[in-house]
Write the structure tokens for this entry.
Amino acid sequence: MSVKKVVNYVKSQNKKLSNRKIGLLNIFFKDPLINEIDIDSVFERANQILPDYFLELIDIIYVGEFQYFKDRDINAMYSDSALYISNEQDNESDLIDDVIHEFAHAVENSFGGLIYADGVIKQNFVSKRIKLKSFLKYENHDIDEYDFTEIEYDEDLDVFLKDGIGYEKLNNLTQGLFLGAYSTVSLREYFARGFEEYYLGNRDYLKTICPYIYSKLTLLEENLDEEGETKYEF
């Protein structure tokens, strides 16, 4: 099932889905969560930690089982002002991670010009990717067919990193360089993982590992008014 089919399906089923409004978030449940999770606690926390102008980027959140997720081995996605979240969550922490991560993509979609205009995050990501390449080459991995300067998602490189190297080993190799293995996959995931750290983790650590993401998120918060409009140029 493609992204388009997922979107069209859930939209066609809206009237049949159970609905909850928690703060500024409008949540529809296609399927119940498989574990006992305090939904109110998770989405109330999202309302508390994210600025309103970020929350208002999302019109609706769908929770359920989607074949597309299983095909891609993912738990969530952002598309057209909506979040799609898997109902297979281990606990509240697992769910809030997915929610905030996908909000990052919504923020990037709306404010990408402000985030990436000067190119510093992109340059930082590419330079780290090149260092990662040298680490892998030193360990005699066959990496010649992969372009480590490509910032967009590359499925072949993703499969190589996940299956050929393994995320556990990749986490060890990139400690102090990336915020975990998945942030090596693309520029978008690099930013999204930094966004997670900013709102759910340790901002001082983010400032050390990814200073440009930290500074851009700080400037973005300071530069937007209550309607999400820029107050000044930067």
Q: What stands out?
A: The chain has two domains: 3-112, 118-223.
